Predict the 3D structure of the following.
Amino acid sequence: MRAVAEALYLGPATRPPPDIGPRLHLIAPNEAALRFDGTPYRKRIPTGRPWTLLLGQETPVALVLGLDPLSRSAAPAEIDSYLDRATFRGRLLFGCTQTEGTSTHPRGTP
């Protein structure tokens, strides 16, 4: 996960999240893709319709990467506990991003 964080230029929770440039591409009403620099591959991200509508309006989003595993089936209370624990231990990394084509950030160029 550290290599992913480095590829995305994410920063620690102890500082304001860095602008990592536009990296999201809407591919369906309930799915986005996250672009990594230096590779043609993207990570597909299932989303809710309200989230993709916000991205379509060029709303900036925070990207949060936890360095420890978390079950995909985790309940909201488990996620809250994970976030609290990971923040306290310095195991969360952050960045601000948006939909591709909405910024002139140098890292956003494909």
